[in-house]
Amino acid sequence: MTAADLQNDGSTTPLEALRAALGGGTMRNVARLLSALNPAEIAALLESLPPEQRRLLWPLVEPAEHGDVLVELNEEVRSRLIADLQPEQLVEAVANLELDDLADLVRELPEAVNREVLRSLNESDRRRLEAVLGYDEDTAGGLMNPDTLTVRGDVTVEVVLRYLRMRKELPSGVDGVFVVSRDGHYRGSLSFAKLLTSDPDELVADLMSTEPPSVPATMPATEVATFFENYDLVSAPVTDENGMLLGHITVDDVVDVIREEASHSVLSMAGLDEDDDMFAPVTVSARRRFVWLGVNLAAAFVAARVAGLFEATLEEVVALAILLPIVPSMGGVAGNQTMVLITRGLALGRVARSNARWLLVKELGVAVLNSVSWATVVALVTSWWFGTWRVGLVIAAALAVNLLCAALAGFGVPLTLKRLRVDPALAGGVVVTTITDVVGIAAFLGLGTLILT
Predict the structure, then answer these.
(1) What is the pLDDT of residues 218-275, one digit of tens each?
(2) Which pLDDT tens digit goes with each residue over 285-312?
(3) How many beta carbons lie within 10 A of that of residue 264, not counting itself?
(4) What angle do CA 151, 155, 159 make, to 5 degrees?
(5) How many degrees, rounded to 5, is the angle at CA 327 between CA 340 and CA 418?
(6) Pair type for strands 176-180 and 215-216
(7) Could you tell me whether strands 186-191 and 215-216 are parallel, antiparallel, or unpaired per DSSP bridges?
(8) Which secondary structure element, helix H or strand E, spans residue 102, and what is its range?
(9) Residue 88: enclosing H or E segment and its boundaries?
(10) 223 and 109 in contact (C-beta within 8 Å)?
């Protein structure tokens, strides 16, 4: 039985059933519920519970599943659980993990535990684990599993099949074998489907495919995800700069990258991190958000200061004060629409110097059409409202100016931040909003001063 089975059994979700069991103090029912879930589902439940209930739940998880559950948790929740475990418990928890999952955890384990874990591995596994740890965790080398199936091109299909039968157990997620030279250079791949349907006497070299190419170990994880999407892969070989086969990446690793990138894109716009614990203490969460609120407040003061320069105009023409929020608000929405589009294009590798000018012209064209359309609407409404065409002219002109500026800011800010090696998703929104607020207020009140006073 899985989480889906529990949910389909009635209207109660696994989380609701678990909370009810915890609230009733019936630990036997809690243990029974947990035994029906896989490690990923248990991790999702742990992340959905306050710290006190996590501490009650964790001892009820089967010790054999501790390592797999820790791998599935986000970094902050995982680090809190690791801090509560004894060194011997941690060593036991990670004992049966695959090397790529073990590499993810080793980076966060205490030094004493790391030494014990490395000591428990044989020489071959220790070297392969160190190979993974030698790469940044957000690269292909950091994602890869060094446990691969390799054969040489000068052997027959029958030999390969005998070799696979002798192994009895295959690495998880693989859909074929990799072909290497005698010195370990990657030559191509041979799918299990091709292997099983070919003549036993045929040579591997005659059947192997050299497409798609191998993944460089230094390739960023987001580019690996795009690579898998473009070639529709289940697994892919990872090689170093000399073409030596280091390991393989499977689609489940790529799904994790895609999920993390999607969470990062959404949360970073609010100054949050995808690895933050939703149930972290109040003081911790407040400290994280404090800086972002401070940046936003500083931007608001800049906009207020610009409005303050036209204090005399606002006192004389009350209509301007009433209509003031409209222009910066419209500019902010338009600017953030363009910014999100460009930021996503940068993340997917679809925006480059070769097509940047075309995109800029396109976004300016969109801004011109929208500015003409909405400026006309606003001009008619405000002229009717205040009984003078001059107020309509002011807000229409200011709106057109700000929408054009919004297009330029939404396009230029992400590219500039990317060049400065600052995450556009994290800082772009507040920068674009500040620009459109300042320009919108300055254009509206400046034109109002010229035309109405």
Answers:
(1) 999 988 998 998 899 999 999 999 999 999 999 988 988 887 776 666 666 555 565 6
(2) 677 667 766 777 787 788 778 888 887 8
(3) 19
(4) 85
(5) 25
(6) unpaired
(7) unpaired
(8) helix 99-106
(9) helix 87-93
(10) no
For residue 327 the two structure tokens come to: 């222009």
Give pTM, 2 decimals: 0.67
| Residues 99 and 238: beta-carbon distance below 8 Å | no
Using a 10 angstrom Cβ sphere, with 0-12 exposed, 13-18 middle and 19 or more buried, the burial of residue 47 is middle
Q: What is the pLDDT along the chain (453 residues), one digit of tens a residue?
A: 444 444 445 446 666 777 677 666 667 777 888 888 888 888 888 888 888 888 888 888 888 888 889 988 888 888 888 888 888 888 888 887 888 788 888 888 888 788 888 888 888 888 888 888 889 988 999 999 888 899 999 999 999 999 999 887 887 788 899 999 999 999 999 999 999 999 999 999 999 999 889 999 999 998 899 899 889 999 999 999 999 999 999 998 898 888 777 666 666 655 556 566 666 777 776 776 677 667 777 877 887 788 888 878 777 688 888 888 899 999 989 998 998 888 878 876 778 888 888 999 999 999 999 999 999 999 999 999 888 899 899 999 999 999 999 999 999 999 998 888 887 877 788 889 899 999 999 999 999 888 887
Residue type, 386: F
Q: Give bridge partners of residue 189 from the DSSP assignment.
A: 178, 209
Distance CA 388, CA 392 (A): 7
d(CA 65, CA 12): 25
Q: Which amino acid is at 325?
A: P
Structure tokens at 61: 């998880």
* Cβ–Cβ < 8 Å for 411, 338: yes
What does each C-alpha distance from 242 to 185, 216, 246 come to in angstroms?
A: 8, 10, 11
DSSP SS3 for 136? coil
Structure tokens belonging to residue 28? 């036997």
Cα 180 from Cα 170, distance rounded (Å):
18
Residue for token digits 């501790």? Answer: 66
Q: Give the N- to C-terminal CA distance of the chain in Å, as an integer.
A: 75
Helix axis angle, 27-35 relative to 14-24, nearest 10°? 160
Instruction: Give the integer Cα–Cα distance in Å for 234 and 363.
Output: 37
DSSP 219-254: SBHHHHHHHHHHHT-SEEEEE-TT-BEEEEEEHHHH
37 CB-side CA count, 13 A: 27
The token pair that represents 281 in the structure block: 């203490």
